[in-house]
Design a protein that fits this description.
With about 100 residues, the chain is mainly β. The model has no long low-confidence stretch (mean pLDDT about 90). Strand 3 and strand 4 form a beta hairpin. It contains one helix and nine strands, in the order βββββββαββ. The strands form three sheets. It has a five-stranded antiparallel beta sheet with strand order 8-7-6-1-9. Strands 2-5 form a two-stranded antiparallel ribbon. Strands 3-4 form a two-stranded antiparallel sheet.
Amino acid sequence: MAKISIPTLKAFHINKKARGTFSEETKAFQADESSDHLKLPVGLTGTISRVYDLEELGANFPIIVKFGFGGEGDERSEFKLPPGVKLTMHFDSDEVELVN
């Protein structure tokens, strides 16, 4: 599992239902379909699906994390995506923190 570790990450090219932010106080999702992105909160937890070997492949963002697919990362996250929203994102090693 991995969780977001820096506060400036945004997800683009996503379903309109997933656009918006999360309340820092209540951790609830706040939809904003007029926005073009989802602001990823520090602490959003997902399931690592793959890590590319940088010596084999020069991937810019070698860690792939899935959110909203029902894995252990989703269950343990204090932030919940809207029902039916699933995201697969690529991260660099300084953007996520490994979680046991």
